[in-house]
Design a protein that fits this description.
The complex is a heterodimer.
Chain A lengths: L1 E6 L3 H12 L4 E7 L2 H10 L4 E5 L7 H11 L5 E5 L4 H9 L4 E4 H7 L1 H13 L12
Parallel strand pairs in A: 1-2, 1-3, 3-4, 4-5
Helix pairs in contact in A: 2-3
Chain B lengths: L8 H70 L8 H10 L3 E7 L5 E4 L13 H9 L3 E2 L6 E2 L2 E11 L5 E10 H4 L1 H8 L6 E6 L4 E5 L4 E3 L6 H10 L2 E6 L5 E9 L8 E8 H4 L1 H48 L15 H80 L5 H28 L2 H6 L1 H16 L2 E5 L9 H22 L3 E9 L2 E8 L6 H4 L5 H10 L5 E7 L3 E9 L8
Parallel strand pairs in B: 13-14
Antiparallel strand pairs in B: 1-2, 1-6, 3-5, 4-5, 5-6, 7-8, 7-12, 8-9, 10-11, 11-12, 14-15, 15-17, 16-17
Helix pairs in contact in B: 1-8, 8-9, 9-10, 12-13, 13-15
Classes of the chains: A alpha/beta, B alpha+beta.
Chain lengths: ~140, ~600
């Protein structure tokens, strides 16, 4: 079972995402965080398979959280969930260490596929998470 | 006056005063010459007077001598055959007058037959020229003025023939006139002449007889300058200056001694040492020259003092103040510089001008400071307004994103979920939900466009290079001008204020290209060089003109400059007609403490 932690400051968004994720039998939402610090605390306490991270949260900057995660837990893939669809934004996020990139609009349809891809890649290779992921 | 250029005022004054002394100097020399001429004339007049007096006296003496000798001659004729008996008479005559040194009667052989001096009876006179002349001319004859001495006294022989009734000479009576006696009047006058003076008698027969004033004696000089003699013979009377036989400079005044008894001309020459003769004129000349030198010295010293006190010191004060003023010291003044005159008025005018200038400069400085302050305030206000606008954009963008965006996202998720979990599939509801999802997607895209225009989140999240890359893509996509970025790998980490300013400048440049350049391609380069961040935007449009760059109403360009000003940045617009425009923005990379 793939264990996912969701970081988003909107509870309704978290609920929606959880609903979508939980529909897949192989994936479970093992944790939720409403800001960056909360997420780091949870990740330090428990190992997750995938982190779903919204970059625009109050408090700690989303990119800083991402960088910190790559320092502390470089093996955990981080999928960025954002409202910005620009390719430049996606490229920079991936360059910053993200393993995947999803816009929230497409999340409903395409959320599960990246997770399974991420896990598959992580289990078959010791290399860092592949940067090139399908973009929405 | 060209020769005065470059010389000091003092030197020019000295020259002017020296010029003023030139006529005085000439006058002194002229007066000296006049004085000398007057003295020479006086000597000449004295010589003339001497000549006349000597001639008169000689005439008188010769007249009386002739009368006396004529009587003696008659007595000789009367005492025919016994002239020797006349010796007593001759002795008496000799005793009567000291003017006669001796008397004598000669026979036709020239032997003395009777004499006032018995000791000279055997003396022969046949060799004497005057004896021969008497025998020949049968009339009174005078001897020469030289060579004859009796008892040490110079004498002049005068001889008269004793003629019988047939006019035949039977004897010759003569008298030896004492020259020192007959010229006593002259000698008295000569005694008044300066020491070293000399009287000389010259006759036509090379005869010379000189009377030495100091010694009071006649003598025959060893030689008399022949050139002088010729000169005097030619002019008869006058004065001339020449050296004597001893090399002493003398003044010679000469005049004819016109005796009626003399058939040959005799000149009387008065010779006075020039140094003594012209002593008075030389003394006056020396005194005048001394006075001139003293006057000149006093004048020059006066000029030295007066020019320094009344002109130069004051001029120096004016020059000093002028230079200080020129060097920027507007408080420089000349002040009081002595007496009230033209220079004082000039100094006063200068001070008034300096005061006026200082006041004007102070006013201008005040205005400039006020203007600078006002401009700084305007800049600060503009910067503040931009900042406020930027903050407002950020706030609105975030608000839209956080509220509307999240809401639409949630609605989209929920609708997707509903669509997926509807228990009974209804085509109509399914289509409705799909339609709603499309509307929501469009709204999200539109929402995103609006927030990106307000404030691109990529600028805040990933910095200037990423934001410019995004803007390049957006520009190409939305405007239709092929815009591309030259890859340099340069990604500066700038304070947010600088990053925002540069990004907005970049947007302004792109807007200008879109509006005015008529370009088809745009190339953007972000790089670093010489400690500066360099942003270059090149287009292939018509090329911006100089007047457009300097147009005071080009507010877009003005905004670019004003945005750069707080950070010490610069912008250069280089337009080439028909070839495009290159805009180069330079910004010192070291931050200036701006962390906005």
């Amino acid at each position: 079972m793939i264990q996912v932690v969701i970081a988003d400051d909107h509870p309704i968004v978290r609920a929606g995402l959880k609903q979508i994720i939980m529909e897949d039998a192989g994936i479970t939402v093992a944790g939720e965080a409403e800001n960056g610090n909360d997420l780091l605390t949870q990740v330090r306490r428990q190992d997750y398979d995938v982190i779903l991270l919204d970059l625009t949260m109050p408090g700690m900057d989303g990119l800083d959280v991402l960088k910190q995660l790559k320092i502390e837990k470089p093996h955990i893939p981080v999928v960025i969930l954002t409202i910005h669809p620009e390719s430049q934004y996606a490229l920079r996020v991936l360059k910053a260490g993200a393993s995947g990139y999803l816009t929230k609009v497409s999340a409903s349809d395409e959320l599960i596929r990246p997770f399974t891809r991420c896990i598959a890649a992580a289990s078959t290779s010791a290399r860092p998470w592949p940067k090139k992921l399908p973009l929405p | 006056m060209r020769q005065f250029v470059g010389t000091s005022l003092k030197t020019r004054l000295y020259l002017l005063v020296s010029l003023a002394f030139i006529p005085i100097t000439l006058l002194i020399f002229y007066v000296a010459e006049e004085q000398k001429a007057a003295e020479e004339e006086a000597i000449f007049q004295k010589t003339m007077a001497l000549a006349r007096a000597a001639a008169n006296e000689e005439d008188q003496k010769l007249e009386s001598t002739r009368n006396l000798l004529t009587v003696v001659a008659h007595i000789v004729v009367i005492a025919e055959g016994q002239p020797d008996k006349l010796s007593g008479l001759l002795v008496d005559l000799s005793m009567q007058s000291k003017a006669y040194e001796s008397f004598g009667i000669l026979n036709l052989d020239g032997r003395l037959v009777a004499s006032s001096d018995p000791s000279r009876t055997d003396h022969g006179y046949s060799h004497k020229a005057w004896f021969s002349n008497v025998l020949r001319d049968k009339k009174m004859v005078m001897g020469q003025y030289h060579g004859a001495h009796i008892n040490g006294e110079p004498v002049l022989y005068v001889a008269v023939p004793a003629l019988d009734h047939r006019r035949q000479i039977v004897a010759v009576a003569f008298a030896a006139l004492n020259l020192n006696w007959i010229n006593r009047t002259i000698f008295k006058q000569l005694a008044e002449l300066p020491e070293g003076s000399r009287l000389t008698l010259l006759d036509n027969n090379q005869g010379v007889l000189s009377y030495d004033v100091d010694a009071g004696q006649w003598s025959v000089p060893q030689n008399f300058n022949p050139a002088l003699r010729r000169e005097m013979a030619g002019r008869q009377s006058g004065t001339l200056s020449a050296s004597d036989e001893n090399g002493v400079q003398q003044i010679y005044a000469f005049a004819p001694l016109a005796s009626t008894f003399r058939d040959r001309r005799v000149s009387i020459v008065l010779e006075i040492p020039e140094e003594l003769a012209l002593a008075a004129s030389r003394r006056i000349f020396t005194r005048n020259v001394a006075l001139l030198v003293v006057s000149a010295l006093i004048a020059l010293l006066s000029i030295w003092w007066a020019s320094d006190v009344f002109i130069l010191r004051r001029v120096r004060a004016m020059v000093r103040a002028s230079r200080q003023l020129a060097a920027g010291d507007l408080s420089s003044r000349i002040g009081k510089i002595g007496v009230r005159d033209e220079l004082s008025h000039l100094a006063g005018a200068f001070d008034e001008m300096a005061a006026s200038l200082q006041e004007r400069i102070a006013r201008e400085a005040q205005v400039m400071a006020s203007l600078a302050q006002s401009r700084e305030q305007l800049r600060n206000l503009a910067a503040y307004q931009q900042d406020v606008r930027e903050q407002e954009r950020i706030r609105i963008a975030r608000e839209i994103h956080d509220q509307l965006g999240q809401s639409l996202t949630i609605m989209s998720m929920d609708l997707t979920w509903i669509k997926k979990h509807m228990p009974k599939r209804s085509l109509t509801i399914d289509e409705k939900i799909s339609g709603m999802l499309t509307v929501i997607d469009d709204a999200l895209v539109r929402l995103h466009t609006v927030t990106a225009e307000l404030r691109p989140v990529i600028l805040d999240d990933f910095g200037l290079a990423a934001a410019i890359e995004w803007q390049v893509e957006e520009y190409s996509h939305r405007i239709g001008i092929d815009c591309r970025m030259v890859p340099t790998g340069f990604e500066p980490e700038l304070p947010k204020g600088q990053a925002t300013a540069l990004f907005r400048i970049f947007q302004e440049i792109l807007t200008n290209i879109m509006r005015h350049a008529q370009a088809k391609n745009v190339e953007v380069k972000l790089a670093a060089g010489n400690g500066d961040l360099i942003l270059q935007v090149r287009d292939d449009g018509r090329g911006i003109t100089e007047s457009e760059v300097n147009d005071p109403e080009a507010f877009g360009l003005l905004g670019i400059r004003e945005r750069l000003y707080p950070f010490g940045g610069q912008v250069v617009f280089d337009g080439r007609p028909g070839l495009g425009t290159l805009v180069t923005v330079r910004l010192p990379i070291s931050p200036k403490g701006d962390n906005q």
